[in-house]
Amino acid sequence: MKLAQSHSYYIKSVIEIESERERESNLMATSHVDVPGEPTETGTALLETATGTIQGFQPINNIHQHLCAFHFYAHDMTRQVEAHHFCGHLNEDVRQCLIYDSPNKDARLIGIEYIVVESLFLTLPDDEKPLWHSHEFEVKGGYLFMPGVPGMVERQDLKQVCKTYGKVIHFWQVDRGDPLPLGIPQIMMALTRPGQLDENIAKDVEKRFGVSFEEQREQRKDLTGPDHGIHPLANAAGRGLKTELREVDIPPATSMPRVFV
Amino acid sequence: MHGIAHVSESTDYERTPPLTVWNTGKDDISLISIQKSFKEAPRYSCYHKKGQKKGYKGIHSVPYLNRSMASSDKKSGPTPAIGPGSTLPGKPTTLGSKLIESGAMMLQSMAPVRQMNLHACTFALYGHDLSRQIETHHFIQRINQDFLQCAVFDSDKPSARLIGVEYIVSDNIFETLPSEEQKLWHSHAYEIKTGLWTLPGMPELLQDPEHKSLTKTYGKFWCTWQVDRGDRLPLGAPSLMMSAQAVDIARVNPELVKRRDRKYGVSRGDAKESRVEMAEPEWINPNADYWKQHGKGFAIDVVPVEMKSSGALI
């Protein structure tokens, strides 16, 4: 049975975990700008160690998977970011991910991604669909991968991911060297065509994680995308998207409480 | 499965999204009807008939990229993405997926998410509509003495939905930010001192040192899933959130607080009393909590633009 086979892979790989982890801890992305501020005081650190053990972290414990992929700004394809997704299933059809700029302890939380299956994507309003992107190209192209997981196991999941749509929002523009999360949120898009991904970024990631996108491409030939093809409104309908800040009047204090239908 | 949309006659919408009605059968998707909501919107159709090669059929022109839902839209689009109650659409997680996940857990390091070691429960207000208030659960990682990053969920159960991200900075860092940036931030003194903010599971006394340092901080909170609006999936642009303040329109609904207090066996009144001695910041930057001085909140729009590319990449 396929699952049993996968399990034997798990066991084999468990033996290699230590060396894997050690290698991963040296995986620094390109020039890491330090976040401004004083080092954590001992008292604070101690307290937070206590809270870390006493309090409950169930939503975080639901995060079971690390995916690495590339995003670019929905208004600027030339700005590309290596995005480390830490994902959990809300159910079989919906996942939610925290996006960091590296897989290390000092990683900065830079964004969020939601992933839904095709059938749910189709229920979205038409003016929502452009904010979502398809995953078919980046999965089949080998650019989206699960660091540390053997190809065969990885492909079990990527088979599903290939058919999904994602919505990514970034809050911290680390690619332009921002030391803090400045500005407004950015809608991000994913690779949809060959030639989009910057060669240097690709080579750098391949080297650090010991993967080869081309090899993956070969092995993922039998994966298929969304059953109905990529929706024309997805991926910003082939155009660009930009977020803008707008001032709004604050409703007066005497307004009645809202009722949401 | 039907993606049915109903026409809304309400003039509540500032701008009505274009309407399409889909019938998503097992083998085909057909567009049942389409209604133009804007005079300028060109018609488009995306369908294929049963038996034909799957995919979206030709369209009359480039798909019309309409204005996407702003963070301040009062109601999200009329589709199953919004429904009675706010239950999550979709099937329960399968055993296969769980196995893959547990396998991944054993092989991958998950280092970044393991750094979160503080859980706070508080309330946030929508920056464009302070009467909309939500209970939030922040899972916090301290980067250094002056900066924290938080993953924000709508509950602390395994089924919690990820609804946004908040960043917290000390007053020292805040003062270095340009004023245009400062307007997006809110102060924390009021919500901490009045017991709205609490660390579930921690005795009040142990919470003290953390609160002392957080009272003087400022936060920037983007909400990506407006669950209180009934959205069953994350819709629209992210929303800027604000914090409760000692002003009528920004006080948290007491019912919300009571419900939270009951859940965690805490008392906001007691917390408030025990924190009364806590030093307040001598001064809160007037650019923070921008609405207080200026009567204006902020919303985010998403607008279509030409994609910047290097030419060769189209």
Automatic annotation (TrEMBL), chain A:
Pfam families associated with the record: DUF1264
Highest taxon above the source species: Eukaryota
Family of the protein in this entry: Belongs to the OBAP family.
Protein name (record): Oil body-associated protein 1a
Organism: Rhynchospora pubera
Lineage of source species: Eukaryota, Viridiplantae, Streptophyta, Embryophyta, Tracheophyta
From TrEMBL, chain B:
Pfam families: DUF1264
InterPro entries: OBAP-like
Stretches for region Disordered: 68-94
PANTHER family: OIL BODY-ASSOCIATED PROTEIN 2A (PTHR31360:SF1), PTHR31360
Family: Belongs to the OBAP family.
UniProt protein name: Oil body-associated protein 2B
Native source species: Rhynchospora pubera
